[in-house]
Each structure stands twice: as C-alpha cells, then as structure tokens.
C-alpha cells in the first residue's frame, strides 16, 4: 500500500521565492525546491525560466535504483509537455537505505506560472520488484505574480 504525505512551504529570501514540496511513497521521500531564474528569449518569444532541485531520500530498509522518469509540465496557457527518459541528468542513482541523492535541473515556460508533476520508476534490489515513486505536483510562479 502506498503511504504518502505532502508538505508545502514558501520561503522568502530577499527578492527570491523558493517553494519546497515533499512527498513519501513506499519509503522513498521526494523533496522539491524551485526558484524563478528570469526570462529568456528564443525565436522572438519570451520564456520564463525556473530551476528546481530534487532530493530523493531512501527511508526504506532496501537498496533501490532510479530507472526512469516521467514528467508532465503545464503552463497557464494550457500547454502540456510530457518528458520521459532513462534516469535523471544522465544517471541512474542507486540509493542504499537511509541515503539520498540530489540533482538540479530547469524548465522554461511560455507563461509566468505553471506546474510540474510526475513519477520515478524504481527497482527494489531486495525483492527485484519495480515500483513508482510519485513526484508531488509543484508550482512554478514568477514572484511578481504572488504580490
């Protein structure tokens, strides 16, 4: 049975807003921190750039490995982008019990607000079972939108 908890908090550091979201699925805790990085232009279009940091913490008693990822990225203009692939940032980390792994990535949106959610496909080395770990939905919002 999947047990999960979601925690959301918003921190203000000077002009930066960093959102943190956490969720536990099958003993694997996913923590997400996001930050607005600014705007960029490509092909005469403005994009809103966000960075995010994902920490995967193995709170179970078994060693596990992240095999693949699935992301759904939404923006306020109702655009949906689905990204799937092996591992994360070119790696398939193995996490022993009570160990964690952190990586950083980014996302560009065509609107100043949006959201991401998804899951990691993992394998449990003790019983060789595959399982999904939910990545909690998190907001990507330009700080001026919050005022």
Compact overview of the structure:
The protein is mostly beta strands. It contains one helix and ten strands. The strands form two sheets. The protein has a five-stranded antiparallel β-sheet, with no helix packed on it. Strands 5, 6, 7, 9 and 10 form a five-stranded antiparallel β-sheet that branches.
Protein described:
This protein is mainly β and 147 residues long. It has a single domain (6-146), classed as Immunoglobulin-like. 3% of the residues lie in helices and 69% in strands. The protein contains 1 helix and 10 strands. Strands 1-2-3-4-8 form a 5-stranded antiparallel sheet, with no helix packed on it. Strands 5, 6, 7, 9 and 10 form a 5-stranded antiparallel sheet that branches.
- Which CATH C-level class is it? Mainly Beta
> How many distinct helices?
1
* H/E element order: EEEEEEEEEEH
**So what's the overall shape?**
elongated
Helical/strand content category: mainly beta
Extended strand count = 10
CATH topology: Immunoglobulin-like
Report the major sheet.
5 strands, antiparallel
- In the CATH hierarchy, what is the superfamily? ApaG domain
Q: Which residue ranges are poorly predicted, with pLDDT under 50 across at least 5 consecutive positions? A: 1-16
Termini separation comes to 40 Å
């Amino acid at each position: 049975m999947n047990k999960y908890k979601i925690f959301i908090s918003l921190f203000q550091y000077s002009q930066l807003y960093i959102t943190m979201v956490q969720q536990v699925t099958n003993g694997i805790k996913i923590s997400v921190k996001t930050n607005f990085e600014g705007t960029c232009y490509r092909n005469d279009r403005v994009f809103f750039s966000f960075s995010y940091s994902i920490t995967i913490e193995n709170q179970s008693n078994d060693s596990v490995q992240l095999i693949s990822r699935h992301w759904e990225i939404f923006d306020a203009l109702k655009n949906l982008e689905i990204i799937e692939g092996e591992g994360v940032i070119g790696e398939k980390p193995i996490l022993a019990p009570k160990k964690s792994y952190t990586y950083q990535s980014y996302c560009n949106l065509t609107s100043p607000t949006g959201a991401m959610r998804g899951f990691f496909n993992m394998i449990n080395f003790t019983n060789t079972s595959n399982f999904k770990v939910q990545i909690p939905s998190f907001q990507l919002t330009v700080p001026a939108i919050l005022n």
